[in-house]
Hints:
- The protein has 299 residues and is an alpha/beta fold.
- Helices cover 37% and strands 15% of the residues.
- It has two domains: 138 residues, Rossmann fold; 148 residues, Aspartate/ornithine carbamoyltransferase (Rossmann fold).
Amino acid sequence: MKDIISISDFSKKEFTDVLAEADKMHSALQKGKALDTLKGKIMAVMFFEASTRTRLSFESAMNRLGGSVLGFAEPASTSMAKAETIADTVNTVAQYSDVIVMRSPFPGAAQLASEVSSVPIINGGDGSREHPTQTMLDLFTIKKEKGRLDNLKVAMIGDLKYGRTVHSLCKAFNNYFKGIEFTFIAPEALAIPNEFKKGKYHETGKLELEDADVVYMTRIQKERFADPTEYEKLKSVYKITPKILETMKKDAIVMHPLPRVNEIDWRCDSDSRCIYFKQAYYGVPTRMALIQLALRGGK
Ligand code: CP
């Protein structure tokens, strides 16, 4: 084990195990306990697309586990600038590390990397396709904050067409959990693709959040638009404000994978239901669990 390319790569047991292990890591972090389970192991990061949370929380996770990190966040500084292929780059980095975390703007890139790599590949996001480790931390967040992963009303808002975090989270809920009711809130041009419309769902263009237990806001992704004028038309379509918060349940949670641009008013940050920075923290214990899973048994 184990490449982590798609959220569908996980069995139900692995889901349960990763979430339980993430909880142990969270407790250890809260107690300030030093862990050195991965002492002597090296994680490489290969980021071909911008990132703050995914790369740095993976690096933090590996450091917290006593391992070390090498890699790049700027491919122009590698020999790819001399026309080396991604396949050769991955194959080379695999010679220097025990596990690779990779982000690419191209859907399917992580899968291709896993086919040439001699060490496990963890997908840190591949274009608009998937972001499985974000989903695992989103589920961990929901479990911690709501106490359950079944029987939830989940509102997904924003760029549901290109949003890979939305795609992976829908897959996880559809495949592994019961009693989920989705409200997909998006402009027509950014509607959720049909493959994710399963179980109980309803689609709307309006910001209707009164019933939601989990509000999952996303950014309109400028970088995925072929036509910049289309982005300009849609970029400010939804915004959560203190007034919108007033319409929501008292025990709802507002999540966002971040980065945000202007889709959540900064004045909302002090509302205890707005947990997106806590969600970003939960990325560390979750990724500690995932790195250990990927390394268990090698490839
Ligand atoms: N949530 C997320 O993937 O954030 P970054 O793009 O900053 O890694």
